[in-house]
Specification:
With 335 residues, the protein is an alpha/beta fold. 37% of the residues lie in helices and 24% in strands. The strands form two sheets. It has a nine-stranded mixed beta sheet, with helices on both faces. It is globular and about 60 Å long. The two termini are 13 Å apart.
């Protein structure tokens, strides 16, 4: 892809309006240094030097989109607690709209705390509860999305398996978006088997794809473009979900794009160094969807998503990628 074509897509992206639906979280990072081992147990003692907070989960997808467009909205459950208040403030600070937040009785905002020492994650502490939506709550969410639909160019389902996204919610919204001709994509979760039909694209990773396709996973003994099991999984998911595109992320092996009636297209990884894979999937689905909505072909969108993921894994924490960083990544690839 030429720099001129990339700039054309990015210029279109500025005016796009997207809604991210899914499990909203607060990401907490505790930064410190390790100077000794605890006398109480064979574990390192982390001397805390600072803390950072970021919107996480589905909200991290929105953060990645916000680098390229002002029109970003999220929809999910936020608790009436201190963490929920902080998450709302962070979203407001980043000018990400919160659409009709769903209030669940006694719901505690999901918090993921990562303790980092010497640029390495020592441990992660999760505070969460799995809380699904009632039929009445699902109806309210669908109504809120339907009311917003005419203003949107695309919708992303970001499923972390925490209960917000259910089959009924997906089918109702997918049906409405298909009728309206909107782009709708999903980042699925293996713990939450959903029929992702009537979607533009679904982006599982390799293990998620094999599980959803009912194929036993094994370590690949051939490159992705020659891996028969990978091809079988992609073809099976195209039929199972009746999707226009299946984008399977392959970690250090890049991505494989499947489209009905076309040969699979492999995009090799662009990562030069890997510090932290946290949030790489969020970045991939965000940039893939945004690019599709900005006039990119599926192959162009996959290339952009691949470069974006390569940038964020070179950073520590649930990071985002900027336009300038993506442009630089493409230029480096040409040199």
């Amino acid at each position: 892809m030429t720099p001129q074509r990339l700039e054309q897509i990015f210029d279109q992206a500025r005016t796009r309006r997207l809604l991210v639906i899914g499990d909203l979280m607060l990401d907490e990072f505790v930064w410190g240094k390790v100077g000794r081992i605890s006398p109480e147990a064979p574990v390192p003692v982390v001397e805390v030097t600072g803390e950072s907070f970021y919107p996480g989960g589905a909200a991290n997808v929105a953060r990645n989109l916000r680098e390229f467009t002002d029109g970003v909205t999220v929809l999910g459950a936020v608790g009436n607690d201190a963490s929920g208040k902080r998450l709302r403030e962070l979203l407001a600070d980043e000018k990400i709209d919160l659409l009709s937040p769903v209030e669940l009785p006694d719901f505690q905002t999901i918090v993921k705390t990562r303790i980092i020492a010497r640029h390495q994650q020592v441990v992660r502490v999760d505070r969460e509860q799995i809380a699904g939506l009632s039929d009445q709550q699902t109806g309210k969410v669908v109504a809120a999305v339907s009311e917003k639909l005419s203003e949107l160019d695309a919708i992303i389902f970001e499923d972390y398996g925490k209960g917000f996204i259910g089959g009924g919610l997906v089918s109702e919204i997918a049906r409405a978006t298909a009728t309206a001709g909107k782009i709708v994509t999903a980042d699925p979760n293996p713990r939450n088997p959903i029929d992702w039909k009537n979607l533009t694209a679904v982006k599982p990773n390799r293990s998620e794809a094999f599980l959803a396709a009912g194929i036993t996973q094994r370590d690949p003994d051939a490159p992705p473009e020659k891996d028969p099991d990978l091809r079988k999984a992609g073809d099976a998911l195209l039929k199972k979900w009746d999707a226009r595109q299946i984008l399977i992320t392959l970690g250090e092996h890049g991505m494989m794009l499947f489209q009905a009636g076309q040969s699979p297209h492999h995009i090799p990884t662009k990562a030069r160094q890997v510090f932290d894979v946290s949030g790489a999937g969020d970045t991939a689905i965000a940039l893939y969807t945004l690019a599709l909505g900005s006039g990119a072909t599926p192959i162009e969108a996959a290339e952009i998503a691949n470069h974006a993921s390569a940038v964020v894994v070179g950073k520590l924490g649930t990071a985002t990628v900027t336009r300038d960083e993506l442009m630089a990544s493409f230029r480096d690839d040409e040199s």
